[in-house]
Automatic annotation (TrEMBL), chain A:
<keyword id="KW-0274">FAD</keyword>
<dbReference type="InterPro" id="IPR002346">
    <property type="entry name" value="Mopterin_DH_FAD-bd"/>
</dbReference>
<feature type="domain" description="FAD-binding PCMH-type">
    <location>
        <begin position="1"/>
        <end position="170"/>
    </location>
</feature>
<dbReference type="GO" id="GO:0016491">
    <property type="term" value="F:oxidoreductase activity"/>
</dbReference>
<protein>
    <submittedName>
        <fullName>Carbon monoxide dehydrogenase</fullName>
    </submittedName>
</protein>
<dbReference type="InterPro" id="IPR016167">
    <property type="entry name" value="FAD-bd_PCMH_sub1"/>
</dbReference>
<dbReference type="InterPro" id="IPR016169">
    <property type="entry name" value="FAD-bd_PCMH_sub2"/>
</dbReference>
<dbReference type="Pfam" id="PF00941">
    <property type="entry name" value="FAD_binding_5"/>
</dbReference>
<keyword id="KW-0285">Flavoprotein</keyword>
From TrEMBL, chain B:
<keyword id="KW-0408">Iron</keyword>
<dbReference type="InterPro" id="IPR002888">
    <property type="entry name" value="2Fe-2S-bd"/>
</dbReference>
<protein>
    <submittedName>
        <fullName>Carbon monoxide dehydrogenase</fullName>
    </submittedName>
</protein>
<dbReference type="Pfam" id="PF01799">
    <property type="entry name" value="Fer2_2"/>
</dbReference>
<dbReference type="InterPro" id="IPR036010">
    <property type="entry name" value="2Fe-2S_ferredoxin-like_sf"/>
</dbReference>
<keyword id="KW-0479">Metal-binding</keyword>
<dbReference type="Pfam" id="PF00111">
    <property type="entry name" value="Fer2"/>
</dbReference>
<dbReference type="GO" id="GO:0016903">
    <property type="term" value="F:oxidoreductase activity, acting on the aldehyde or oxo group of donors"/>
</dbReference>
<dbReference type="InterPro" id="IPR001041">
    <property type="entry name" value="2Fe-2S_ferredoxin-type"/>
</dbReference>
Amino acid sequence: MYEFKYHRPGTVRQAANLLVKNEDAKVIAGGHTLIPVMKQRLASPPHLVDLSHIEGLNTIEMKGRSLVIGATARHAEVAGSAIVGEAIPALANLASQIGDPAVRHKGTIGGSLANNDPTADYPAAVLALGATIVTNKRRLKAEEYFQGLFSTALEADEIITKVMFPLPKKAAYIKFRNQASRYALVGVFVARRPSDVRVAVTGAGSEGVFRVEAFEEALKKRFASKAIEGIEVPAEGLNSDIHGSAEYRAHLIGVLTRRALDAANAKG
Amino acid sequence: MAKISLIVNGNPVTANVDPRTLLVQFLRENLHLTGTHVGCDTSQCGACVVHLDGKAVKSCTTLAVMADGHEVKTIEGLAADGAPLHPMQEAFREHHGLQCGFCTPGMIMTAIDIVHRKGHELDDHTIREELEGNLCRCTGYQNIVTSISAGAKAMAKSDLA
């Protein structure tokens, strides 16, 4: 790890000022992606701005018909939250599958989304549920937020403060995880929303999280695993590595989507 | 350098550290608490697990400066020198929950965290699921699971948390 200066602001405004003042500064909260990357010297920010002591930034609450999760809410907090469990159980279930218990005690939803790892779990939920990413500057729709591999619409001095999830009628997340890393080899989040159906896939796409429109079209007519039988997902544009070929991932997308649909319907 | 003040195993500690010092380095090299181990150094194996504000975390993936103002408990903090072992340590001894012992401090700190979250009556499936972030290369886990099950029950009757 290269040298850096550590800052611990007490408010989002202070944090944003530190980002403006210090070029190439990075935000840290749980540190479970950034610290490993810094250890490998793949990142060498000269300044770290720690958000984890900003009061109220980890609040989980219902606001109208939306579930609002603060940026520094840790995976264990989301997984164990009665509010999340009541509002969107699929989201609590997703959080309970990230990493391992010790990782879940540190990692945050804001960190996962800011990093936009192509194998992370939260991006699938945010895209499928049509969530809004709220920052210190503006509100970003999921569709405009994710911009490819480790890439987002966030500006250099922009900080995620919370994520707003509109409540779906039904939802489920099924993950086929890499046994060693616990990251998603493929993860599929299906959501039946009041206006449409969304199927978002993580782990498989070479450009990060994406939606399967062919599935969505078929599911709009009938929200059931039978509705997508026979629809093939093309392997083109999917990741191929030692863990699985693009064809294998394409196959898994179909299998996991059907399982997710069954799970979503089983919950009634 | 950054000045940090924290509580380690009940004792206040103040030190000047390079901000890039990992919590595990700080514990081992500054405080000479070498019970916390570095295994994989990539947040996967769990040999470095300590409690930060009462919760199991991987100290190889935590900066010492991030623990400033917080409370850390390591394997050395479970029982005083010469005093009887913590019930979870005693269970690992009694049930041979280790061979080489390298992963054991992390296993025990994780085991106690499991009891704090899941209670004293743990079935084997729960224990195995909860141990997904702790790797042992010798035992095949059988006796670790037995130890944790017994240690969890014993903790119900003990004053040591």
